[in-house]
Amino acid sequence: YIQLARLYGALGEKEKAIFVYKKGLDIGFDPELEDVKKIQQGLDVLEKRFSGSMNFISKQDSNFALTIPARTDFSNILAIDLSYVLFRKRAFEIPVSYFQNTTPFYRSQIFFSNHGVSLGIQQNLSYALSYKLDARYNVSISEGSGLSSLQTRGSGSMTYRRRIPTSSSLTYHYSDMVFDGNKNLNRTGQHIEHSFAHTLSFTDSLSFSYAFISQDVPKARDNTYQGHNINLQAQRRLPNNTFLRISGELGQDNFLHTDTVGSKKRRNLMYAYGAGLTVPWSPSISLTFDYLFRKNKSNLGPTPISDQDIIQGRTSALGDYQKRVWTVGVNVVF
Description:
By secondary structure, the chain is mainly β. Helix content is 13%, strand content 61%. It is built from 4 helices and 14 strands. The chain has helices at 2-10, 14-26, 34-47, 307-312; strands spanning 50-61, 73-89, 92-105, 110-124, 129-142, 146-161, 167-179, 187-199, 204-216, 225-238, 242-258, 265-282, 285-298, 321-333. A 14-stranded antiparallel beta barrel has the order 1-2-3-4-5-6-7-8-9-10-11-12-13-14. The protein is elongated, with a radius of gyration of 23 Å. The chain starts with a helix and ends with a strand.
């Protein structure tokens, strides 16, 4: 029963998987048997419409201001994601979601909050092929400046599963951001990404992605650019379901207009690497520990940027900087 139900689930046939699980329970075996518990757990996952997660993260950023000399800041992040499946039939679902994150920055004395909702559709066309469409709207608020930005974003993705690589995905995002009080910073953005993930063994997996990013800021042309980003991550499952991961990232942003300060077009080259550990505390709670090093090199050298600009994402015209970020977090899923 377990294997057959899991096979139906993998094929996107949720109703058939639920039917098989229930038939297994109808036999009437002792509820304390391990296989019966697995059947009940599998059934609970498939029938659940409401789900969510909550993350609490403490972070130390060695160069929050992205300047030379560096200035350290500390922050705490509370992130909540809630999702409810409005409609489900066979392999087709319509989920609605609410998400928010709240972050106080202590040395900068800034309180930032972001809230949003999304509505999507997703379907497994077959075991090998699935798609997702999503529309979201979010509002950002910053203490000291009030309502800071409104963003509307639409996205779509296709995922194909096979043996090598285990899965490949093509994703597209389009966003429109409006800044309250400063219409000159209004912008649109596009993001196209092709990613691959491969399971090397029961314990090891590898993922790779390439993204093309474009941002247009008509009235603040210093921030208009096109960029390329490459990301590689390896993950290993250790004893007790602890996960160890290492990652590397390389990016280049080519700005399309002459910089008003540097008198030539800005070009930024960035690289980063990091390592992290996820340790299970219970079936629904895990602890995370991460380290990240990031360095950006600009042909225009260091660039002064205000704390509010950094937090609210007002500027992309970054100068020379390097930083180290340490994070410790607790993740709860329900």
